[in-house]
Design goal:
The complex is a heterodimer of chains A (470) and B (256).
Chain A: H1 2-17, H2 21-40, E1 41-43, H3 46-60, H4 66-111, H5 115-153, H6 156-169, H7 176-185, H8 187-193, H9 200-209, H10 219-230, H11 236-267, H12 289-324, E2 326-327, E3 330-331, H13 332-346, H14 351-359, H15 367-379, H16 397-406, H17 411-422, H18 428-438, H19 441-469
Antiparallel strand pairs in A: 2-3
Helix pairs in contact in A: 4-5, 4-11, 5-12, 6-7, 7-8, 8-18, 9-11, 9-19, 10-11, 10-16, 10-17, 13-14, 14-15, 15-16, 17-19, 18-19
Chain B: H1 8-11, E1 20-24, E2 32-38, H2 44-52, E3 69-75, E4 78-84, H3 96-107, E5 112-118, H4 122-135, E6 139-144, H5 146-151, E7 154-156, H6 158-165, E8 169-171, H7 180-192, H8 207-223, H9 230-238, H10 242-250
Parallel strand pairs in B: 2-4, 2-5, 5-6, 6-8
Antiparallel strand pairs in B: 1-3, 3-4
Classes of the chains: A mainly alpha (470), B alpha/beta (256).
């Protein structure tokens, strides 16, 4: 065989050369590169610029200031999102729910739609879509561009650098810091981003724990509940700050769980060595402002919104159906709420919330409207809402709070809902993405079940402690 | 994703970019295959987007392109398939992204390889360039991020660089589309054979190693006269690269 001859010769030659072939070759490449570069590159003012990058890096990756700066930047981004989204959200919901919705109903009537068809289409599908657009679009249109600007500027690798040793301590890969950050936008995107992690063991850890990054569909839930129940605890002047603080605490708790679960996995199911990697801190580059805004609106915001709509429409239909299909004298929704209530109360939640999380598996965004709709129906609050299974948003945060309180909500329910919103199964898109990335039913199941078990445990403990103390 | 030309400049025949038709993901029956290689974070994806009109996500962090992305464009009546490879620092180790890049250049045999480098970090980037030039003859150096180099007051004599490397060098700032028309033209000329490259070979290696490489290279060429990168295969065999030993056994790289 002629191939064997080549291999034999190569083996002989390797013996002759002895050790260090790889190193000598690498040295050769480096010195060639240096010579060529010397001949054609002329530097003048490099030092100054380099010093700027250096000194900025010294601050943002310093042991003392690194973490506070990260939290501060996250807070500012969140605060801008919370404050800025309010107004356009109101406008959109006025338009979509206040104006177009009654108009659609009238049209349905004039064409002579039977009640169930107009209920199914307009009260179910349309309202779910309208809610998702009104509530999701404004915060996304603010959050994603801000995040992309940070990314373009070059801040993300610094975050990875800061978090690297924490990840290493939890037996995970430092690049998980990047995939975790992506998860703050969308968990499905975060799961895909784990492809940058070479080792399959560490990649699985990153995939399973990505769900602990509070995703875009869950930010509005956190913000709304924090504003109603936690902001209301303090005088009005501080309400915004305290709500922001509560939401950030939940996000940080998510990061804490990322580390703890990574540690747990690397000690049990996914044992192994931590692999090292080189992370080049890229130069800071001034982001191209308008271009970034444009592409992040088109690429991220609209794509995520489209995905949410695709999932929200059928979910809206399901909500309407379970509220309007009757078994005996109770509709399916009521029947389920009654059966889930005991377990829910044990967790400091209630049957409505658990049912809402089952219905809203396709999209986290519709949890709150589902909860409101189911609360109104099961508590039979008269004078609000528009009938069984009709999703709606109340025009003021106070009115929403009143409904929830009438439904038996306490501060404990609110806190546990925020915790449960952080710690529950990923949405169906993410689950499907995990399956596509891991090609394993086992790991997909682990990634789906593990967070919800954690959620049950944490909510249970909080509820018991609360009931003992209060 | 056809682009509508509406400004006077874009339609002018003096503007080479007017010969460019971005084809997006429509990449069937291409005439040429072009690979896009380079260090992480040098703007490969930006160059890719500028040529294909696609919107691969770009961002200022290394490692965002994790698999090969493919797209197409038409230039001077020829259809090109463009393959965006993951960014790597070298081709000498065995991590997954490096293998994707290396295997494509070695076994995928692109008609042209565009090597994107960061002009402000040329020396570090050249390590990869020299390794790629060991594998393939048909390469174009895209000296990207020229705007940044200018801001750092770094001047690069691209003619000397082209002479030293033995391949065409095109300065670009892909973010603002500067230099893209020139890049298209040069890639076309290399693909059609109008420009012949005489790539640099790694010189600074000890004599005994160089002799060994030469001896093995001649042996490989004797057995497989059509192999275009016998020297690289010799290098990898001497380094004990399992994947290449396997490829020599199966004769994978000689499927002409």
């Amino acid at each position: 065989m002629k191939t064997n001859k080549i291999l034999n010769i190569s083996n002989d030659l390797r013996w002759q050369i002895g050790e260090g072939f790889h190193d000598k070759l690498t040295e050769g490449i480096y010195s060639d590169a240096a010579t060529i570069a010397q001949n054609s590159v002329q530097k003048k003012g490099d030092a100054k610029r380099f010093r700027f990058d250096r000194s900025l890096d010294k601050i943002v990756t310093s042991k003392v200031w690194g973490f506070p700066i990260m939290i501060l930047i996250l807070s500012v981004v969140l605060w801008l999102t919370i404050i800025g989204a309010n107004y356009p959200s109101g406008l959109l919901s006025d338009l979509l729910i206040g104006n177009i919705y009654p108009w659609l109903k009238t049209i349905g009537e004039s064409i002579g739609f039977p009640w169930w068809l107009s209920g199914f289409l307009f009260d179910g599908v349309y309202l779910a879509l309208a809610w998702v657009i009104a509530v999701m679009l404004p915060p996304m249109a603010i959050f994603f561009p801000l995040f992309t600007l940070l990314e373009d500027f070059g801040y993300l690798p610094r975050v990875a650098f800061n978090l690297d040793h924490l990840f290493k301590k939890s037996g995970a890969h430092g690049k998980q810091a990047l995939t975790m950050s992506m998860g703050f936008g969308c968990n499905a995107a975060g799961v895909i981003a784990t492809r940058i992690i070479d080792s399959p063991r560490e990649r699985l850890i990153a995939i399973i724990t990505n769900n602990f990054s509070l995703c875009n569909g869950r930010w509005p839930t956190q913000i709304l509940i924090a504003s109603i129940f936690i902001g209301a605890l303090v005088p009005e002047n501080f309400a915004g700050a305290i709500s922001t603080f509560a939401v950030i605490s939940i996000a940080l708790l998510g990061i804490f769980f990322t580390f703890m679960v990574s540690l747990f996995l690397s000690k049990t199911m996914l044992k192994g060595e931590v692999s090292s990697f080189t992370l080049e801190l890229p130069p800071y580059r001034p982001p191209r402002f308008w271009k970034t805004i444009y592409t992040s609106l088109i690429d991220r915001t609209l794509i995520v919104l489209w995905r949410a709509c695709v999932f929200a429409a059928p979910a809206g239909a399901v909500i309407w159906l379970i509220s309007n299909v009757f078994i005996g004298d109770s509709n399916i929704a009521n029947w389920m709420i009654i059966h889930l209530d005991g377990f829910g109360i044990l967790l400091g939640l209630n049957g409505v919330i658990l049912l809402a999380y089952i219905v809203a598996i396709p999209a986290n965004e519709i949890v709150i409207p589902t909860i409101l709709m189911l609360t109104v129906m099961s508590a039979s609050i008269t004078g609000v809402g528009s009938g069984n299974g009709v999703m709606f948003e109340l025009d003021s945060i106070n009115a929403t709070g009143e409904i929830l309180k009438a439904g038996g909500w306490t501060l404990l329910t609110a806190i546990n809902l925020m915790l449960f919103s952080l710690l529950h199964n990923p949405c169906s898109t993410t689950i499907y993405t995990i399956y596509k990335e891991t090609k394993s039913v086992k790991w997909t199941t682990v990634a789906s079940i593990l967070p919800i078990i954690l959620g049950f445990i944490v909510c249970f403990i909080v509820a018991q402690v609360w009931r003992i103390l209060m | 994703m056809q682009k509508v030309t509406n400004s006077a400049c874009e339609g002018c025949e003096l503007n080479q970019a007017s010969n460019l038709k971005k084809l997006g993901v429509n990449i069937e029956d291409n005439n040429y295959v072009v690979a896009l290689a380079g260090n992480p974070n040098t703007g490969k994806s930006t160059v890719f987007n500028a040529l294909t009109g696609l919107k691969q996500h770009t961002g200022n962090w290394p490692g965002k392109t994790v698999t090969r992305a493919e797209g197409g464009y038409r230039y001077n009546e020829k259809k090109y398939k463009l393959v965006d490879l993951p960014g790597t620092y070298s081709l000498l180790s065995t991590s997954q992204d490096e293998e994707v890049a290396r295997n494509f250049i070695l076994f995928g045999k692109p008609d042209v390889t565009i090597i994107v480098v960061d002009a402000s970090r040329l020396e570090r980037n050249l390590n990869l360039v020299l390794q790629i030039l060991e594998i393939t003859d048909k390469a174009v150096l895209c000296l990207n991020l020229m705007d940044e180099a200018k801001r750092l007051e770094i001047e690069i004599d691209d003619r000397t660089l082209a002479r030293d490397l033995g391949i065409p060098v095109v300065p670009t700032s892909a973010r603002s589309k500067e230099g893209i028309p020139e890049l298209l033209k040069i890639v076309h000329q290399v693909a059609t054979g109008e420009i012949k490259c005489k790539p640099h070979r790694i010189k600074n290696v000890p004599k005994n190693i160089n002799n060994a490489i030469e001896k093995l290279r001649l042996e490989i060429e004797k057995e497989y006269p059509n192999v275009p990168n016998s020297r690289w295969i010799a290098l990898r065999l001497l380094d004990g690269d399992e994947r290449i030993i396997e490829a020599v056994k199966t004769g994978e790289f000689i499927t002409e």
